[in-house]
Amino acid sequence: MIIKKVESVSKVKVIDDGVKDVEKQVLLGPDDGVPNFIMRQFTVQPGGYTFYHTHDYEHEVYIVSGRGIARNDKNEVAIEKQNVILVTPNEVHQFVNNGTEPLVFLCLIPKS
């Protein structure tokens, strides 16, 4: 069993075209010897956003705090603390912080 404090995990600024004011923490990942899933936490500052992108695997998202928008190719949906989101394989998606406080969410993805 591995138990950590979230604040003990380094935050890395995501620097890339299509991303604004986002930090990522790998809470449980390959360095921990996880067998199947990677748990990440993202912090999106007000006015920030993640990539508008797609990939061939699903992921599950849990909104820890803040408010924002989950966007796909069909619509935009308001999201807030304690919402859960399933992003299906090959679904275009993006998370946008249109609020006044950081949008923090957990994102679980397959290890492979």
Features of this protein?
Jelly Rolls, globular, six-stranded antiparallel sheet, 9 strands, three-stranded antiparallel sheet, mainly beta, 112 residues
Give a written overview of the molecule.
The chain starts with 11 loop residues before the first strand and ends with a strand. The strands form two sheets. Strands 1-2-3-9-4-7 form a six-stranded antiparallel β-sheet, with no helix packed on it. Strands 6-5-8 form a three-stranded antiparallel β-sheet, with no helix packed on it. The protein has strands at residues 12-13, 20-28, 37-49, 59-65, 67-71, 76-80, 84-87, 94-96, 103-110. A hairpin with a 6-residue loop joins strand 1 (12-13) and strand 2. It has no helices and nine strands. Helices cover 0% and strands 50% of the residues. The model has no long low-confidence stretch (mean pLDDT 97). It has one domain (9-56, 64-84, 97-110): Jelly Rolls. The protein has 112 residues and is mainly β. The radius of gyration is 14 Å and the shape is globular.
Helix/strand layout:
Layout: E1 12-13, E2 20-28, E3 37-49, E4 59-65, E5 67-71, E6 76-80, E7 84-87, E8 94-96, E9 103-110
Antiparallel strand pairs: 1-2, 2-3, 3-9, 4-7, 4-9, 5-6, 5-8
